[in-house]
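Q: Got a minute? One more chain.
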Amino acid sequence: MFPGDFLKCVFPLKKTLLFSGSSSSTGPLRERHSRDPRMANSSVCYYNQSAMFFYNLSGRDLVTEEEHYSSVGFFIGVLLTGVSIIFFNGLVLTAIIINRRLHFPFYVLLGNLAVTDLCVGVSYLVITCQSGVWTSAVTAGEWLFRQGLIDISLMASLLNLMAIALERQQTIFTMQLHSKMTKCRVSFLIATVWFVALLVGLSPFMGWNCLCDLSSCSDTLPLFRRSYVLSISILSLLIMIGVVILYVCIFIYVWNKSRRMREHTPQGQQKETIINLMKMVLLIIGCFVLCWTPALVLLLLDGVCHFPQQLLVVESFFLTLVASNSLLNPIIYTYRDKDVRSTFKHIFCCPCAALGRAAK
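A: Always. Here it is, folded:
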């Protein structure tokens, strides 16, 4: 039961109005009220409405959006993006579990990243399969819960990328092969990642929504308040900037360090090291920024002001782009690691032996 339903059973509101949630009923409502501030001051709450009621109120035409997106987007979103995210991250997580040489802090954080990205894949599949006209069958409480799952997963993945960047910076700055971070510190980082992600993702479900204040509803996420959309987009943007700064600092440090060691290191080897590092940093930052920036810009615009409805058509593509970062993460962070690659080969060539090794 959604929290508001219990309150309504104990303290029924005399002014509560129930609408069917269909487009025929919400059309006149939008014409009469058009999110009139006087309506926001009333005690009317719409806990019993379907999610479609709020989409119609925001002017969203889900039928048109689905036709625009379903042809290629559904195939890409479900079969390619969602399933691939689950497969590749499950593979990375299995490799880290069965190979004891991968139990260093970096790989533990990488395993946690695989878990968060697995959650992204599962929740993304759920949202994609219930998108478009299927939204009419989703209640407000169900919509808030399922959207909370994807928000928790994406925020946890984003924060985990920050944790990995911090670990990489410490390792490189101390010139070590593996970080000497203690188990307590790694556990603290992982616990912090999930705590903040849960706090952010469950806030709308616990009350930071617009079910009782239609004038504050978002356009991209019609059951969320604009203040929440703006806050989460700013937080995500700050985390993204922090990750970029950390990797830029790593590159600058290695560049300066190599210049000091120029007299003791062959110039060809030094140049090769710098080029490899530059490629790796550019790959991480480039994919990260490319996947997250369009969605964050859209959310920032939505949090600040109303924008043309035509932009909402590309919202599904932006969500697919963000989710695809969870597909790229296991590839980017493991494709050059010999231990991980050898473990992958062992899993594919001898799956039974790999499972037996994990059981031990």
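A: The two ends are 43 Å apart (CA to CA).
Q: Perfect, thanks.
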